[in-house]
Amino acid sequence: MYFFAVPQDLQYLSEGLEGRSSNPVAVLFDTLLHPNADFGYEFPPVLQWRQENQYHVPHLVLGRAAPGGAWHAMEGSMLTISLGIWMELPGVNYRDLTAGNRRGVANDRATPEEISSYYKNYVKLMGLQKNFLDNAYVTSVQRLHRDHEDAVESEGRGDAVDGKKEIEVKDGSPAMLPQGIWEVRGYQQVQGDAHVPFSIFAENVVLATGASDAPARLLVEGEDFPFVFHSIADLGMAVSKGTLDQNSDPVLIVGAGLSAADAALCAYNNNISILHVFRKRVDDPGLIFKQLPKTLYPEYHKVYHLMCSQTHSAAATEATTAPASGRFQDYTSFPEHCVVSFQPDMKCVLRSGTNSKVFKVSMALVLIGTHPNLFFLKDHGQYLALDPSKPISCKHNPIEIHPYTFECTKEANLFAMGPLVGDNFVRFLKGGALGIASCLMKRLKKKGELIADGGGGGGGGLV
């Protein structure tokens, strides 16, 4: 087994490694946890986990839902892109908690329900409940008193004392806050619609919001009409309520990624006609389907086959065999088309080159990607990006970080991990947690503040 204490030199250990992440620590950790995974092997990790209380870092996780985040809201029939074992977190074997759900060596992927249940149980098994504040909505993250003249935003009043601020809190006892402390404001939703505000002070803040908060929009006329949606969950809801069935007008799906494919599968499996619109050619090498092995992802290759074989041009040449009602076949693709507008009478105008077409639809799903929503930061956090002149994009303009500590290069004591820094898979975002933990442990040790008796979970030691 490999000895690996968390506060080691991650830069030295990461040298020479290559993988599917641009962050070297993510590649290092993945290499230790899943040796040769990209070559199709499933070798056991070369690590064993051991709790080391002297490495405990006090922390609090604020989440808008239960642990597992967006996995709780995903459509239940979907399967993960990653193998289930790649979704595993340190110290708790994924298969032990999902016994009996394995689908076979060739297709050991997981459902959102299995993953969300695993993450929720993980928190309990690791004794981390006290570190999680569920149903918490952050509305503001900002630094306090950058200089001695700044006013302190608090429920009491503040005075400068030896370069620090003395805060008079509710119980009358003063607390010393160092220069540049972070204040995190928000509210927790309890007992239905009741909101309880909170204000938390922290020396360090980690941004781990993922990428699914703000759906990308077409920015065309009529996109705000009530029959236009931007989430596959709305399709599932319409199907379950019976407002959408095999007798409905076609569903319009816009996009050529996996979310659009999931929507097409959902509609197809419920016998709902589909009009699938996307800008790229069907043989475009950039299509995600060309990067997925057929044996592991048969359902996505089924959609790709439909995209290639049941195009609108092909359907037009077979007009003589179309039913008298004029209804579309179950699926029709429109490659190299774009949406011009949505009309109030539930019609959609499509264009390819100089040709326009108008179709009546029952529902439109615009699934062309998502963006992180960092509204709680100054300028929506845009100043943190690689290119500060453009909005943050997980694929094209991630947050700029130090490669081994994951600290934002433009804001000290602010860290980022996961999709915000380009790591869109669980197997790689764990490296971000390692880099951040290692950095904080080194700083706490330097200040002599590492807690010898951590109590509960959260300690980190690898051997």
UniProtKB/TrEMBL annotation:
<dbReference type="GO" id="GO:0030308">
    <property type="term" value="P:negative regulation of cell growth"/>
</dbReference>
<dbReference type="GO" id="GO:0008083">
    <property type="term" value="F:growth factor activity"/>
</dbReference>
<dbReference type="InterPro" id="IPR036188">
    <property type="entry name" value="FAD/NAD-bd_sf"/>
</dbReference>
<protein>
    <recommendedName>
        <fullName>Oxidative stress induced growth inhibitor family member 2</fullName>
    </recommendedName>
</protein>
<dbReference type="InterPro" id="IPR029731">
    <property type="entry name" value="OSGIN1/2"/>
</dbReference>
